[in-house]
Each structure stands twice: as structure tokens, then as C-alpha cells.
């Protein structure tokens, strides 16, 4: 205990922790962002909280986050040890790994997920195909009121399936729906009150009953699903014409089979595929759904977006990514939706790679770091009226699109989301396709925030 106190002696200020519990009783574990906003007002933009016996340094606001993740990227770029993640992923895959494993898998994944990285069909074509399928599902509703959440999430998940497995699934396919349900349940538990407690008190939570145990079972089921798909790919693999992410990974495994330092093995393949699903499904589909609700709340903004769609794209062809350059207002609306919706208020926890003196405080090596992205996206120094939906945040005086450095919904630095390019394409193509073909109406207040 004495050594621990000495280790954390020069950490940033924060609320006084209780033995074993830390600050858990002083924080709203169901809504940590709200607690962090209050603490930042008391302790400033760099403060410490104790989740159980773990000291966690929280960075608040654009200046502090940029100084860490961009200006000191090598030191603040490691991934923290997460007990909940270790239960299912161990040290495999892209999301929770560090060192050479992370570098090899990230480099490969970034290259493969680029627009023309796989076979003859581009990622854009895959999204366009799925947008048309979603459009037809909407048409089947024949103008009757319905909640689009389920269909939108299936469509986004299908894009990932197309990229990873080389195939899309029918929206009623039982295997697809089972996969989708497990992913959604895992994401929900990971971000729930129970998930927070699991990371703070892993030994105690492991002994207690609860939904967190279902995450482990879901992982084994998902792992078996991916293994079956890999076996199918192995039987039909053409080294000269990779069809998808799995093909590319298998080819890389063959190329490096004699390299003892290679990280291209089956376990890294299985976990990386699941990482991509987790990162690429829920956040994008939630943003699309919220964009429709926001536009329903602001019919004047919706009308301007549809006017721009009619002017640039018209009604006789599908939207393309190239159209975005000619549609600054629509682009601004989508960016403002991401900013105000704030679907990932905190980045996945990082850790310091070495001891550093940061803003006068000594942060030891392997200290867990939380970057409070909400405080960046709603930083009053960076955005005028930060809690109000206003597309002008991303428009210049001439009405051209203007991206701000503080716009980091995908985080920033070495660990920024590898799916940023994919997500941007999905948001633009799905939203413009639906608004090109349908008028949105709601009988209720569509959005409260």
C-alpha cells in the first residue's frame, strides 16, 4: 500500500478514493461522462479518478487531448489492460494488442480496408449495393409508420459482412440475425453499468452471476462462426484474386509462414474480424438513425439537404462518394450529426508507454488513460453554441465545407479508428440514398437531447 501511494503521489488531482472501492461511490457509473464534466469543473482538464484499485487519468477538452494523443503520440498510444476484453480476446487481434502485434495488424488492416483494397469490387460499390437493398426494404413499408433502427443496423452490419466474408446476407437469414444479435448484446453489455464494474472489479465480478458471463459464451459462438467462414475460404482461395478481408489475411499468412516474428495466425484473424464487427456496426448505424431523428426535428435543414441532393445527384442515379465534394451543406449536416450525437463519449482506454511529466504532473508508465471525447466535440473554445445542433459549425463564410481539427469522433493519433474512411462513406451513401427517395415524417417528437 505504501508503494502504491508513492507511485501515484504526483498524479493529477481528483476526488479522494476509498480503500478498494476507489471513487466508485462518488461517480455515476451509469453515466460517467456526466460525472467527468462535474469533476473537470472542480479539478481542471487533467484529473485522476480511481476505479476500484486502479488510478485512471482523464483528459478533458481539445487542448489536453491533442497534447497527449498528437503531440505525445508514442507515449500515450498504448492500449490499457481491460479485464473485460482480456476475458474474451486475450492479447490477440487489433483492438487490445500493443507492440509489434498491434503494428503488424494495424498496418495490414488499414491497407486492406482502403477503397480498392480487395478484388475487383470497391468498398464504395459494396455500400451502394447495400443502400439499394435498404431502400427496397423501406419501400416495402408502403408509407406506413415504422422504426428504421433495426433495418439500418442490419444494413450497416451487412457492409461489414461483405468486406470481411465477401457476401451479404438476406435480412431474414437466421445465421445473420443470430450473428447480429450476439454483436449487439456484446456491445450493450460492454458499455453498460455491468461492463464498467467488470473492468473495475474483475475478480469480484467473475464470481458474481450476471449478463457479463454471456459475453464470453457469445464470443465462443462468434469465434466458431468466423472459423467456419475461414474454412470455406481456404477451400476456394485464389491467391491472385482476393475477395475480401479473410482472403487477404490468409494470403498474408501464407506469405509469412516462414517468418517466426509474423503475427499473421488464425487466432489473430478470428479476433481481428470480431474487432472490426464491434467497431464498425453499432456506432455507424446509431449515427445514421440519429441523423434521421435530428433532421425530423429540423425540417428546414432537412429541406436544404434534399434540395442539394436533387441539385447534385438528381433522381436518376445512385449517390456516389464523389458527390460529397459538391455537397458542402449535406457534408456539414452529417459532421454536425456526428458531433452532437456523440455516440462514443470516451475512447477505448489507453495506457502510458513510459513515465512522463505532463502539464506538471508525473504520470507513471502503464497508467490507464481516458480521453473524454465528449469534451472535445462540445468544447466551447472550438464550437460556437456547442450543445446546439448547427451545421454552420462546418461551413465557411462562402458556404463551403470546413472541417475543424477538434472534430475527432473517431479519436485521433496512433490509435484512431481504422474504420474512419469506411464509416464516412457509409454515413454519406446511406443517408443520401434514403433522403433521395423518401420524405421523412414523424407523429411524435423525434428527438430529445
TrEMBL record:
InterPro entries: Cyt_P450 (IPR001128), Cyt_P450_CS (IPR017972), Cyt_P450_E_grp-I (IPR002401), Cyt_P450_E_grp-I_CYP2A-like (IPR008067), Cyt_P450_sf (IPR036396), Cytochrome_P450_fam2 (IPR050182). It comes from the Eukaryota. Its cofactor is heme. Keywords: Endoplasmic reticulum, Heme, Iron, Membrane, Metal-binding, Microsome, Monooxygenase, Oxidoreductase. It holds the Pfam family p450. It is found in: Endoplasmic reticulum membrane; Microsome membrane. Belongs to the cytochrome P450 family. PANTHER family: CYTOCHROME P450 508A4-RELATED, CYTOCHROME P450 FAMILY 2 SUBFAMILY A MEMBER 6 GENE 2. This is Cytochrome P450.
Amino acid at each position: 500500500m505504501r508503494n502504491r501511494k508513492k507511485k501515484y503521489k504526483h498524479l493529477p488531482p481528483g476526488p479522494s478514493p476509498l480503500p478498494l472501492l476507489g471513487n466508485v461511490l462518488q461517480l455515476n457509473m451509469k453515466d460517467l461522462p456526466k460525472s467527468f464534466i462535474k469533476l473537470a469543473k472542480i479539478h481542471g482538464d487533467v484529473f485522476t479518478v480511481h476505479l476500484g484499485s486502479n488510478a485512471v487519468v482523464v483528459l478533458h477538452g481539445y487542448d489536453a487531448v491533442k497534447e497527449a494523443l498528437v503531440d505525445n503520440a508514442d507515449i500515450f498510444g498504448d492500449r490499457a489492460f481491460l479485464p473485460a476484453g482480456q476475458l474474451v480476446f486475450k492479447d490477440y487481434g487489433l483492438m487490445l494488442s500493443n507492440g509489434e502485434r498491434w503494428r503488424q495488424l494495424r498496418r495490414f488492416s488499414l491497407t486492406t480496408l482502403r477503397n480498392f483494397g480487395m478484388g475487383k469490387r470497391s468498398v464504395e460499390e459494396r455500400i451502394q449495393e447495400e443502400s439499394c437493398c435498404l431502400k427496397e426494404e423501406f419501400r416495402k413499408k408502403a408509407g406506413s409508420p415504422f422504426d428504421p433502427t433495426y433495418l439500418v443496423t442490419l444494413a450497416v452490419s451487412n457492409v461489414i459482412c461483405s468486406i470481411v466474408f465477401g457476401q451479404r446476407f438476406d435480412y431474414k437469414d437466421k445465421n445473420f440475425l443470430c450473428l447480429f444479435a450476439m454483436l449487439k448484446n456484446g456491445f450493450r453489455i460492454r458499455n453498460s453499468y455491468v461492463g464498467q464494474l467488470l473492468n473495475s472489479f474483475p475478480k469480484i465480478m467473475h464470481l458474481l452471476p450476471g449478463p457479463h458471463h454471456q459475453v464470453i459464451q457469445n464470443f465462443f459462438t462468434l469465434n466458431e462462426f468466423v472459423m467456419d467462414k475461414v474454412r470455406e475460404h481456404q477451400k476456394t482461395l485464389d491467391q491472385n484474386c482476393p475477395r475480401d478481408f479473410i482472403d487477404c489475411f490468409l494470403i498474408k499468412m501464407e506469405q509469412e509462414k516462414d517468418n517466426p516474428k509474423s503475427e499473421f495466425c488464425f487466432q489473430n484473424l478470428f479476433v481481428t474480424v470480431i474487432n472490426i464487427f464491434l467497431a464498425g456496426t453499432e456506432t455507424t448505424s446509431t449515427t445514421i438513425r440519429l441523423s434521421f431523428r435530428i433532421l425530423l426535428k429540423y425540417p428546414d435543414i432537412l429541406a436544404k439537404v434534399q434540395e442539394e441532393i436533387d441539385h447534385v445527384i438528381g433522381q436518376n442515379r445512385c449517390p456516389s462518394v464523389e458527390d460529397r465534394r459538391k455537397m458542402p451543406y449535406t457534408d456539414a449536416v452529417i459532421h454536425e450529426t456526428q458531433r452532437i450525437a456523440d455516440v462514443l463519449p470516451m475512447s477505448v482506454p489507453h495506457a502510458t508507454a513510459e513515465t512522463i511529466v505532463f502539464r506538471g504532473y508525473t504520470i507513471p508508465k502503464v497508467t490507464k488513460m481516458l480521453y473524454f471525447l465528449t469534451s472535445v466535440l462540445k468544447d466551447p473554445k472550438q464550437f460556437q453554441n456547442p450543445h446546439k445542433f448547427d451545421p454552420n459549425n462546418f461551413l465557411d463564410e462562402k458556404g463551403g465545407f470546413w472541417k475543424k481539427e477538434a472534430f475527432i469522433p473517431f479519436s485521433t493519433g496512433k490509435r484512431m479508428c481504422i474504420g474512419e474512411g469506411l464509416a464516412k462513406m457509409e454515413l454519406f451513401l446511406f443517408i443520401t440514398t434514403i433522403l433521395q427517395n423518401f420524405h421523412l415524417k414523424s407523429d411524435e417528437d423525434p428527438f430529445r437531447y
